[in-house]
Write a structure and sequence with these properties.
about 270 residues; alpha/beta; Helicase, Ruva Protein, domain 3; 7-stranded mixed β-sheet; about 35% helix; about 20% strand
Length: about 270
């Protein structure tokens, strides 16, 4: 039985489940972490392909079903847990990285992505093939200046290379959701070192830049504690004075972040 509070919409399209599994590439020597395996539509494919498969399932009944189904598959481990509480470092062999696959519950897609990005920045994850609501997927891959571009777009694109693979209709699931779903491939390639910024501090800065969508970048930063004269003194020439963060690529935001370094402590 589906449990609505868990956002369970099970993939039943046979071609889609094979396409999703294949999108990970060659995993014969890889550890794969599956988020929300459900009844095992993709698990059963990966179990025969990867070196080790760790399936994280929050629903006790489904976890028990999966343990029974894969009881003769020593390479498959079923972890009954909330993915938002899982320590990825404890799952990945020391000195190695894992790949991730999964149908992300709509109501916690962003928090899961933040966990994946954090693990990717630590070198624990190399690639993810994930399915999510199409509107959210569009935000991840949006370019600056597009209506969909925002904090999630910028955060994703500084942490990973994003590729939209295909979109599935509601009929591909049981029960059918009210929305279309898109499958994305994320290759974790954090750009913090390349851009010369500290990851945690720059994440905080980005959140300040995108805090209020209708406000200009300068107004958002003033609300975050920067003084008007500080902003005026170091404002990069390539950023229009009335620009909003949604119109800017990462590079000019990085330039502003670095220029504001002397004032960062007072803003915090």
């Amino acid at each position: 039985m589906r449990k609505p509070k868990l956002g369970q919409n099970f993939l039943v399209d046979d071609a889609a489940r094979h396409s999703i599994a294949e999108a990970l590439g060659d995993v014969s020597a890889r550890t794969v972490i599956e988020i929300g395996p459900g009844h095992g539509a993709i698990t059963s494919i990966l179990a025969e392909r990867c070196q080790r498969l760790i399936a994280i399932e929050i629903d006790p009944a489904l976890a028990a079903e999966l343990r029974f189904h894969f009881r003769a598959s020593p390479q498959v481990e079923i972890v009954e847990a909330d993915v938002l509480e899982v320590d990825f470092a404890a799952l990945v062999p020391l000195g190695e990285s894992a790949d991730v696959i999964g149908n992300l519950p709509y109501y916690i897609t962003s928090p899961i992505l933040m966990r994946l990005f954090a693990a990717g920045a630590r070198g624990l994850l190399a690639r993810a093939v994930v399915m999510m609501q199409r509107e959210v997927a569009d935000r991840l891959s949006a370019a600056p200046g597009c209506r969909e571009y925002g904090l999630l777009s910028a955060t994703t694109q500084i942490n990973a290379r994003v590729e939209t693979l295909f979109t599935l209709p509601p009929a591909a699931f049981s029960p059918p959701p009210d929305v279309f779903s898109s499958v994305l491939r994320l290759d974790f390639l954090p750009r913090f070192a390349e851009l010369g910024v500290e990851a945690a501090e720059f994440d905080t800065f980005l959140r300040a830049c995108f805090a209020q969508k209708r406000k200009t970048l300068a107004n958002n930063l003033r609300a975050a504690g920067y003084m008007a004269d500080e902003l005026h003194a170091v404002w990069p020439a390539e950023i229009p004075p009335l620009a909003r963060a949604e119109s800017l690529a990462l590079e000019p935001l990085v330039a502003l972040y670095r220029a504001l370094t002397p004032f960062r402590h007072s803003a915090e």
